[in-house]
Design goal:
By secondary structure, the chain is mostly helical. It has a domain of 150 residues: Lysozyme. 61% of the residues lie in helices and 0% in strands. The two termini are 27 Å apart.
Length: 272
């Protein structure tokens, strides 16, 4: 949620039409009522997917590390200004918080890379049986109440709860009190303007945050005719950015990695 400074200019008429021109190019549909049979991947295909994931994570890590270096220089300058009495303690602490959040992102991606680098488990001779068994495991945030809220608001707004789960995992790692250095808040990292738009008065309240974030995701999916990739791009960079680039994923490294990582997880949906 680091690029949401792109202004939104959308007419009611455009929203009502639902941007139908891109319907034929829909890649993933949010309507998951009809079960989709996913082919059992071959070991070679699984290896390629893992390689792509590691490449994407490495690119994201480099992006975050660059942000840390930028903020470190900025904070050093801020400290000098503070020592000279030119800025307030509050401004200095704000910079320290932004730097800490950026470093936390680097550490989180490093953990994901370490997990991706772990050797694949040895498969039994019945590879298909192993895959079917693992796909029967239900997803969980580790918190029953949050799981229930995801399912409740997913059903209420017609959004696949597992998509909400995947987005939330990428946004906050299921930390209700998470705050980004850009000001995004809570489990689904709502920016203040987005929270206000959806009536969220306390973004750190799990129920309000999930309700608001799910409604926003639903609106994005409607806006982009069920294109999950574009809805995710809009969630990360702002819907205005998606429209600015002709209803495509904007050419921002963070946004493209964000979409790629969530879709990679979402397309391997377990049975819930």
């Amino acid at each position: 949620m680091n690029l949401k400074n792109v202004p939104l200019v959308v007419s009611k008429a455009a929203l009502s039409l639902g941007f139908v021109v891109f319907t034929l190019f829909s890649t993933v549909s949010v309507n998951a009522q009809q079960p989709v049979a996913h082919p059992v991947p071959s070991p070679a295909t699984a290896g390629e997917a893992k390689s792509e994931l590691k490449t994407s994570l490495t690119e994201l890590s480099a992006l975050y590390q660059g942000e840390v270096q930028r903020l470190e220089k900025q904070q050093q300058q801020a400290k000098e200004l503070y020592d000279d009495g030119l800025i307030s303690r509050l401004e200095l602490e704000k910079g320290e918080k932004a730097l800490a959040d950026a470093r936390a992102k680097v550490e989180d991606v490093a953990k994901q890379i370490a997990t991706a680098n772990q050797p694949a488990p040895v498969m039994s001779a019945d590879f298909g049986a192993v895959m079917n068994s693992s796909s029967s495991l239900a997803w969980s945030t580790g918190n029953g109440r949050i799981d229930g809220l995801i399912r409740q608001y997913g059903a209420q707004y017609g959004v696949d709860p597992y998509l909400v789960y995947c987005l939330m995992s990428q946004e906050s790692s299921f930390i209700a009190g998470a705050t980004s250095y850009k000001g995004a808040q809570g489990l689904m990292q709502l920016m203040p303007g987005t929270a206000a738009r959806y009536g969220v008065t306390n973004p750190y309240d799990a129920a309000q945050n999930i309700k608001g974030g799910t409604r926003y995701l639903k609106d994005l999916l409607q806006m982009f005719n069920g294109r999950v990739d574009l809805a995710l791009a809009g969630y990360n960079a702002g819907e205005g950015a998606v429209m600015k680039y002709g209803n495509t994923v904007p050419p921002y490294a963070e946004t493209r990695n964000y979409v790629k990582l969530i879709l990679k997880r979402y397309t391997k949906k377990p049975t819930s």
